[in-house]
Amino acid sequence: MTDTTDHAGTTHGDEAGRTGTDEPVRAAVRSTTSARWAALAAVVAALVPALGVVGVWADQTIGGSWTYGPVARVLGVVGLLAGVVTAVLAARRGDRATLGFGLAAVALPLGVLVASVLHPVAAVLLLLARVLLVAFGVVVALRSTGARRVAGWSVTVGAGVWLLSEIGMDVLFRFWIPPQEALLPFFTVPQVGQFVGFVAAALLFVPPLVRPVGAGLRRLWATADVR
Question: What pTM value is reported for the model?
């Protein structure tokens, strides 16, 4: 009887010890998984506006109906949802920079989707998206070093070109409408800025997604029989 009780007590103690030891590991795994999902949402939220620009260029080059077609609208909804997820997860972490990016990723597709119905609201949303993207790039650039700083400044420059060129065209077109053949360059400049800004933003969120691949390759290399 005594032996059984002792063994049971020892077993229970071992289980409690293992549980106490495993809990920090489980918490770390949950944190890593959450970070990867957040990074994936942010990458999607950044790539959708960049793909939208590519679609517009394709329409201008080879013709098509991307700009107002169903695929563009579906992608806009996907980008909107990804932006919401990014903003919510960033708010929970207290990451104000990423929260600003998430709100920019929400404001842009939402402004596009409501443009035909609520034009004044759409104009405010689109302006907000540009300003928030500029702010996100500046904060990242000032807080980072190395390649991350370069990407942050790329976001800032691209979003700044997007913002200033759109404002400049709005003011200019109130007084003078350029000839038809000159309109394409006018509209291409902000599109390039939007593309560069969002692609650079996507690159900022890629590392948590590729880190497991790099760790796996290093593990394979370390355990390989032939080098």
Answer: 0.80
